[in-house]
Amino acid sequence: MASQKRLYNVGAILKGLSITFGFMFRRRPTIQYPSVKKQHAPRFHGLHELRRYGDGKERCIGCELCSSVCPANAITVIGAENSPDDRRSPGERYAARYEIDELRCIFCGMCEEACPTDAIVLTPSFEMADYRRGSFVYDKDRLLVPPDAGVGTSPNERPGGIPGDLGRVAEIKATTDVERGYDATWRGEVLKTQRKGLTLLPPSKAQ
Amino acid sequence: MPWWLAVLIKSAILLFVVVTSFAYAMLAERKILGWMQLRPGPNRVGPWGLLQPAADAAKLMLKEDLTPETADRLLYKLAPFISLVTAFSVYAVIPFGASSSGTWAIGNVNAGILVILAITSLGVYGICLGGWASGSKYPLLGSVRSTAQMISYELAMALSLIGVLILAGTTSLDGIVKAQMRWWFVLPQFIGFVIYIITAVAETNRAPFDLVEAETELVAGFHTEYSGLRFGLFFIAEYVNMLTVSCIATLLFFGGWNAPFGLTAIPGVVWFVLKVACFMFFYMWLRATLPRLRYDRLMAFGWKVLLPVATLNLIVTAIIVAYTG
After folding, report:
1. Counted domains in chain A
2. Chain A residue with minimal CA distance to B306?
3. In chain B, which residues have their Cβ closer than 8 Å to the Cβ of A16?
4. CB of B288 less than 8 A from some CB of A
């Protein structure tokens, strides 16, 4: 009987109607995603990239530590010896093949931690949707930054052959200049958004 | 101009108006539901999403029209048209305004309200047969529900309207609106108005009385198996029925095209459209607010509350009118 009384409780219905009416005029928290983008956390784990040194040499020395530490077995590295007339990396070896299956990857960042030369870095870029599964296996061509986007001093140019900026590169994720047009990093995303005359929300407003 | 040509032209214009208002009623519903749920609603197609109805129509037309193997093919294919034709044909007798040359309607029938009640009663066949002919259990349950719900609520609905007819002394919609020149029938017939509003929601299968297509229980109720254009026809019929009951509420209780507070500078058609729009908003508002009723409570409410109250309202009105003349 109590439930029967509640059913005919007109006051409750009117109260409900007033609540929904009030909600019509509230500020909506929606972010109009493709046109307005929310800024990520500075250490967001997104798509990988392979870094270079300032002189254009690859940082990766083909040691395969990333592939052995990877909990999802997403990384394949096949190393090869550098030849004296075509030196790809400052070390003895370089990665002849370097592939990451981004569908297997769980974006834990352990490859980043394991890498002795800060070659592999997770960028904040996450928009990698595609139509075919095969296109999610990123090979070296797609992972490696352009030759002029390198950072840090190569060990070739340093006494003792030790990289000068170990442990710092992964911290500053946006290493490339937006003017150079390379946009796999967060600053690149801003540029793309601004080019279309759209706005990017600062992190405090987007929360 | 021969009379049949005039009717044809009037019908074509009216059909265009009704279909357009259906399209934008649908957009408005999605927008209003969105706002009430703190979402922006559709806004990607055209400015403020204004081209969304066109995109939806194109999508529905291009979708495959499936027929289940167990379906009764003829009835299955016919049912959406029954719903649609009955929904549209009501507009033949609904007047929208009046000028010195006469009432703006295709046919100014002297038993207009009876014609409307008769035609809308036929509309339930579309839902019943569609659900039954699908040859599938959820649509069948939906159509069984629709039969029982329509019958129980149609009684109370008709009784709630008779109070107005007694006050107006006519069944012509034109005459009923003219009888409201002094005051709108919502004042003397407030109980009748409340009952009509509740039963109208049930008659059009809208939330919170949408047990016929209760998606949480019956997948999509009677139109579970329908796809493509045939689903679209049911969809159009539902919204056109909403417009119809809003028009009736406006004509019978809110003075039709009579201007309120003596604001006769604005033409009557505008007032009519505004009033109908208010009712449409009310239906969308209800949908955003109230949860669906349980089926036994729906039936109990219809038979044990609405019907006795409507009967009492009718008797009291009749006695008062008989004594005061």
Report:
1. 1
2. A8
3. 289-290
4. yes
Domain-embedded: residue A203? no
Q: For an interface test with B, give the residue of A4, A5, A15, A24 to mutate (most B CBs within 10 A).
A: A24
Best mutation target, B278, B289, B301, to test chain A (most A CBs within 10 A)? B289
Query: Residues 26-65, chain B: which have Cβ within 8 Å of A?
Result: 32, 35-40, 43
Q: Model's pTM, two decimal places?
A: 0.75
Q: In angstroms, what CA-CA distances link B271 with B113, B266, B267, B274?
A: 20, 7, 7, 5
Contact A8 B305 (CB under 8 A): yes
Contact B142, B81 (CB under 8 A): no
Paired tokens of A191: 């540029």
Residue range A31-80, pLDDT digits in tens: 777 777 666 666 677 888 888 887 888 888 888 899 999 999 999 999 88
Cβ atoms < 10 Å from Cβ of B97: 17
The domain limits of chain B are 62-324
CATH number for position A71: 3.30.70.3270
Residues 142-171 of B with CB under 8 A from A: none
Enclosing domain of residue A70: 46-171
DSSP symbols for B186-199: TTTTHHHHHHHHHH
Confirm whether A34 is domain-assigned: no
Is residue A183 very low, low, confident or very high in pLDDT (cuts 50, 70, 90)? very low
What confidence tens digit (pLDDT) does each residue in A137-160 have? Answer: 998 888 888 887 777 777 776 666
